[in-house]
Amino acid sequence: MDEPPLHPRVETVAEDIETMETRGAATIADAAASALVTQAAESRAETPAAFRGEIRAAARTLLDTRPTAVSLPNALRYVLQRMDGESVAALRASVERAGSSFRDQLDRAQDDLGEIGANRLRDGDRVMTHCHSTDAVACIEHAVQQGKAISAVVKETRPRKQGHITARELRELGVPVTLIVDSAARRSLGDVDHVLVGADAIAADGSVVNKIGTSGLAVNARERGTPVMVAAQTIKLHPDTMTGHTVDIEMRDESEVIAPEDRAEIGEITVENPAFDVTPPRHVDAIVTERGQFPPESVVTLMRELFGEGTREPWAE
Amino acid sequence: MDEPPLHPRVETVAEDIETMETRGAATIADAAASALVTQAAESRAETPAAFRGEIRAAARTLLDTRPTAVSLPNALRYVLQRMDGESVAALRASVERAGSSFRDQLDRAQDDLGEIGANRLRDGDRVMTHCHSTDAVACIEHAVQQGKAISAVVKETRPRKQGHITARELRELGVPVTLIVDSAARRSLGDVDHVLVGADAIAADGSVVNKIGTSGLAVNARERGTPVMVAAQTIKLHPDTMTGHTVDIEMRDESEVIAPEDRAEIGEITVENPAFDVTPPRHVDAIVTERGQFPPESVVTLMRELFGEGTREPWAE
Amino acid sequence: MDEPPLHPRVETVAEDIETMETRGAATIADAAASALVTQAAESRAETPAAFRGEIRAAARTLLDTRPTAVSLPNALRYVLQRMDGESVAALRASVERAGSSFRDQLDRAQDDLGEIGANRLRDGDRVMTHCHSTDAVACIEHAVQQGKAISAVVKETRPRKQGHITARELRELGVPVTLIVDSAARRSLGDVDHVLVGADAIAADGSVVNKIGTSGLAVNARERGTPVMVAAQTIKLHPDTMTGHTVDIEMRDESEVIAPEDRAEIGEITVENPAFDVTPPRHVDAIVTERGQFPPESVVTLMRELFGEGTREPWAE
Amino acid sequence: MDEPPLHPRVETVAEDIETMETRGAATIADAAASALVTQAAESRAETPAAFRGEIRAAARTLLDTRPTAVSLPNALRYVLQRMDGESVAALRASVERAGSSFRDQLDRAQDDLGEIGANRLRDGDRVMTHCHSTDAVACIEHAVQQGKAISAVVKETRPRKQGHITARELRELGVPVTLIVDSAARRSLGDVDHVLVGADAIAADGSVVNKIGTSGLAVNARERGTPVMVAAQTIKLHPDTMTGHTVDIEMRDESEVIAPEDRAEIGEITVENPAFDVTPPRHVDAIVTERGQFPPESVVTLMRELFGEGTREPWAE
Amino acid sequence: MDEPPLHPRVETVAEDIETMETRGAATIADAAASALVTQAAESRAETPAAFRGEIRAAARTLLDTRPTAVSLPNALRYVLQRMDGESVAALRASVERAGSSFRDQLDRAQDDLGEIGANRLRDGDRVMTHCHSTDAVACIEHAVQQGKAISAVVKETRPRKQGHITARELRELGVPVTLIVDSAARRSLGDVDHVLVGADAIAADGSVVNKIGTSGLAVNARERGTPVMVAAQTIKLHPDTMTGHTVDIEMRDESEVIAPEDRAEIGEITVENPAFDVTPPRHVDAIVTERGQFPPESVVTLMRELFGEGTREPWAE
Amino acid sequence: MDEPPLHPRVETVAEDIETMETRGAATIADAAASALVTQAAESRAETPAAFRGEIRAAARTLLDTRPTAVSLPNALRYVLQRMDGESVAALRASVERAGSSFRDQLDRAQDDLGEIGANRLRDGDRVMTHCHSTDAVACIEHAVQQGKAISAVVKETRPRKQGHITARELRELGVPVTLIVDSAARRSLGDVDHVLVGADAIAADGSVVNKIGTSGLAVNARERGTPVMVAAQTIKLHPDTMTGHTVDIEMRDESEVIAPEDRAEIGEITVENPAFDVTPPRHVDAIVTERGQFPPESVVTLMRELFGEGTREPWAE
């Protein structure tokens, strides 16, 4: 069967994503939704079936560029999930509405999320962070804007020490920062009111995929009675996990862990450098999204609402 | 009251300890016990009271050199605890016997401990280590000598990365080593049969003072069902804790955590660099000493047996 | 901008709520819903926008009377959430329908809830209560009506001893009652089949705000293997918490805790008398509402269904 | 009031279910849905009310045959829940659509579920099973079809040793099987990547009713850090539990536990042979259905979506 | 067989204990030890056997006065356990030595204990107390004397509100006090560094018998990560429990729980007023005695050392 | 070097143990102790060294017969541990004394243990048993003799169903018995006051080696709040574990698990039939021995007291 005709802008957007001209989870998602809207607006399809076929084909083209990034399929799922109507006009309108709504929400998502997360923080609270997450920083930023005094214990987050970025951004907000090595976390947990982290992906079983070290921190936080709060926009939800798929953990370059010269001195060893780990929902108290906060066990409901049931791929021919 | 006359060797030993000419927990303990034996052998005391006074004074002199090292008072306690007799001759003999017995045991302690620890390991076991401990390495070494195939997951142990030393020593024993950052520990715990660490001090309430990060690791090990084994010679027992004293946690230089130039870039922050943390006994499965293995909750019994009840300082005038 | 014209009944209802002429969570909610229905029925608005504006203004007026009571905004949210239509007539009908449905459900909520809660209890069960909750008592009452023999261990619930009220109501139902001080709860938990409490508010993260002492009881119940059941009508759900807001804990008068003369005798002390505490969802087995029972982690879904997403206030201009 | 006229096929189907001519959860559900469709298709009702009355009466007739089987009321609930329309024609169409959709989904449910469950398993994983569940076996079967090497530890599952059936079916799939007695489970849990069981029913509070021994296994799995996965089609969801009803645990014949001659030798004893037990949601990691996987705490949402709120019986007159 | 002749002072002491002229755990223990010493000093026994018989008879006479107080048999056990020698003179000396040593230790026990307990407290610590215990207050008093700033959260301890006594004594020491009802404990546990309680008895299995409410507090403290410290002189150790005996829990007068007039208003209810409960060792971090601190699991060793193996009663004929 | 001359009775005893003429842990231990006494009594050694050599040689001969039974080396350790003196006469007397004391204690051990265990049980208690242990039954027997009403839930204990033996013996004592399959244990744990099991060996780290299924039962008992009590005479203590040795778990015949014909039908499978498993001390509340009850964490102290430090084998040349 012939592929339906695609609007050139779809192909440009796809190319820009593929060549990483377009980068960043939110930027990619926005571009993808916008491309679908263009395809809908400019479509010359004459039958609803043809129109649907075009939109799905556009989605597949976009998806093929970066099959593992989660924000890209989420943008596509969101729009296709809402494509509905008996006529081409109705279908077109529904795609335009969905695309526009997705982009609007995306645009203010971090701001909304920050406000919600900030509401969980009280004046005088002390927060422990792991790695660097703009969503997590947004929560603290909004709390500061609400006039709350917040201080932070920042874990350096080996191997890449993204804690330094967090520290700098919090300093720019005027937040007092105490920097510690990752191993010193348990010792400080008793003096801390919240553990606050971001997420790379959230799975349908409620588990949180985030920077290596998150799960060990969460286990210790539970043992010390400190609540754990995950700040993650809904584009981090991972609909594939609804069908049981597990999130692949990227293994990063070994040289991040040990310099070649130090390694040579030690002798022949294996170095493992997993980028992420998985925190089960029972060690997380709340997931803060721009749509509100949720216990991790109920995020699947939000995931189904936003992105469909997930047992069928909406772009399948 | 006049201080009793001390043998010059006591003063030499004291000076060598003070100037750090004599270094290392075991070496210091050995020198101190040996100095007491010399004092006893060469004493010119004519009454039991005078003899006792001399030995106590020698102990005080030695103790004053390094009041915080735990092996030093342990050597003194061990010998003074066993000073007994109705005559100078009997007292002298008891001190010589105790000093000699202490030094003999010290001499073979790591070997005995290694053998005992090795017995807990089975052929094919995989061990996770934190920091570097010669006692812990001795357990693996003996297991290898027993013909067991042992492999190791070595945590790098920020900030000073003593894990590199452990890795090198294990490689020299032919043990396959996988190096990870500290944050990656929980992810590997499911594939590991034992967590094996050393100790800086063991307290009367059964808690283990060891390199920062040990307690967080132990909490995660318990949560994953992995047993935790602490290898520590009895000179690491901390008799002061019998009277409720807590072990001071050394705060080390901040530059170990972050280079001054990186710090300058971030802005004004606090850096905390605690050297140790405290693992409660409920997260430890066994403490392996040269005297046998013990549940952490029963180590106080061994402490009392070796070093006395602890509610009185044996060197008090 | 001018405020839209409000029906006098809205103002009367508002005044009655403000002066506490109208009292009690359910009574207030009922009055508020009824006032919105009146406003809708009698509205002279000529455009959908004007009509919507009037209803929102009425809601704001009502809300201003008691900004902290949760049942009041819930009634308003429920109705406004369902205001829908392209014409004034359609909008009016939708408000009337929603108001009527809300009031009908409210009217039979405790009865429905009691039936559902009673179904969890088996013949011969022994129940432990804390404080006094008409929803919790309704569960026992229905169980008794179902012909089940139920007995109760009633915690007195210092400082105000509302346990005495519970005891009296249960006696009136013929339920055998054992009264204990709050501290005796753990000792009895092994002989008890359920802990059954009410709630002052239920948060979006699944935590239960209830009379001080509930959370400590729930932790002990979990440790003893006794299930914890919370009986709470849906007007106790707290939609503000969807946006991360925490529930303020009222601090009550110190004289409830200690008589002034006893206090004078002791000397200068601080007295803290928090009215409520927060039980995390992991210590609660089921929340029983008139809409069915829910694990605490999924109550947010019900909250969104009944009261909207919560990230926007439906009465905002 | 007269009962509405029922189509003869409804009565035939009812009879076949009653006489156990029609057996098996899925077969019964399919027959019941099909009977409702026939009733709708052939109805001679002239008013919507009459039509609704007929369908409800047909449902009651079917329900009366086996009031305790959960798949039967689920089929009826699913269809009646979707009966909607202002005219007889619209109502008829809605019943036909719902019946057809229910049967289609049922037809491919185990296959879909198996695919989803298989996605949770990784190449090389070792799975522990309890009892025999075709849903659980389907997960392993699909994993094998995905090319993954899976091995299994099969608990024999006293008293009826359904583990032998599981073992045989897994052998037919080429899966290496290790058979153990039930008591040996904890010893193997450290070497196992998943516990995988089926379910007889899933309750609204997230608890899982399954073969006796499941809950004890799940508690041990949690303690050893091994995730627990329950495979259950949505016809196993138990809507009655939404209204607090508990699932009756069948007590089976004592001779399954002990042969009469052995019993005679022991003397007068009681024998208890419960068929099932109840696993609380906190000991289960995921429930895998044909609609996707869910944390047990969120299954109630799916239950409400498929079968209605549950506080009203849809077949009530 | 004739009872051996007892010294009149033994009988006077016995009578004074029986008539409660002599009261208080320590005072009784002191009197009993002193009576044994008198009996030994004044004995006219001519054979070792006769002497032993006399001392045992004296012990039995003393014991009969208050069979349930634990300090009385402990005094007797301590002395009889140390009665040793081949001649009457040697036996007499051993009893005198043991009696004198027991009394000396008793005399300074609370002081020693206070010092040890104080060492566990750091400057700035906040302590939560339950009931009133002079041993617990002694720990805080010594900490204050050591120059540490200590503050306290004092639970009122229904039904008898001994927390008021604790509050007053702490105020006299200058310690800032916050008084709360018992149910408010969990809410404050996050801000508290230690839970500090006394004990009525300590059992050989490591469990702590103390004022009702202690066990529930300890469970919550563990859940919040707050360490629990029990201050108890060794006369609170309960040697009978070495042979499995359980400690009877006194049920106190019901009017302590509810005033008769309030009760009459409620109707016919049962009131349970247990004086104590039992905290298992896993919820206690340290037991502080005058002999040092111990994990609860190792107290049995101290019990055997002080009071003998316990499987034989030393006063048995 | 020549082996010292052994008394013929030593060789007879050794042979009887080797040929299993002498069987049963207690009988073997008794025979071994008795043989050492004979060797001592009849020794013609003229020097202390020769005498010691003879006794050690006798011990080695006895030990060689059954190197894995734990009661045999315990008898030898007990006696050799107490061999002490400067002359042959003194040494002989010490061996005779130790041998006699060991045998006396052994003779009444089960009775003493039963009494102690019975003291932990209250009138009306319900006890759950696993496997068959004469020590555990002795506890119930003594409780019955104390006039307490005790009932029992007896797990059948696959694969060999020793629960049937327990059931029969308890019936003979008049104890009401409920028999269940092993998997039904968790369901009954809420109605049970104690789990009571025996032990095959107790290790120095406090873990309990007992019939397969014990550890899983103990984990569930802890989760349900039911205390676990282990009844084990001190000959079950395993001194080798003081030096880290682990207890080998016997793998028994596969035909105990599945009949060959059933197995043939299934196809090629592995069958694992471990006889024992290991319960960590944190899941056990008390170990009841004839010397008193102990928390599992303190049993090592008793082990050292009875059998020596264990780091040296007392029979080593």
UniProtKB/TrEMBL annotation, chains A, B, C, D, E, F:
InterPro entries: IF-2B-related, IF_2B-like_C, Initiation_fac_2B_a/b/d, M1Pi_N, NagB/RpiA_transferase-like, R15Pi
GO BP term (any one): L-methionine salvage from methylthioadenosine
Catalytic activity: alpha-D-ribose 1,5-bisphosphate = D-ribulose 1,5-bisphosphate
The UniProt record lists the keyword Protein biosynthesis: yes
UniProt xrefs under Pfam families: IF-2B
Keyword annotations of the record: Carbohydrate metabolism, Initiation factor, Isomerase, Protein biosynthesis
Active site, UniProt feature: C131, D200
Record EC number: 5.3.1.29
Any one GO molecular function term: ribose 1,5-bisphosphate isomerase activity
HAMAP family reported for this sequence: R15P_isomerase
Note, other: Reaction proceeds via a cis-phosphoenolate intermediate.
Family according to the record: Belongs to the eIF-2B alpha/beta/delta subunits family. R15P isomerase subfamily.
Record's function text: Catalyzes the isomerization of ribose 1,5-bisphosphate (R15P) to ribulose 1,5-bisphosphate (RuBP).
Protein name in UniProt: Ribose 1,5-bisphosphate isomerase
Naturally occurring in which organism (per UniProt): Halomicrobium mukohataei (strain ATCC 700874 / DSM 12286 / JCM 9738 / NCIMB 13541)
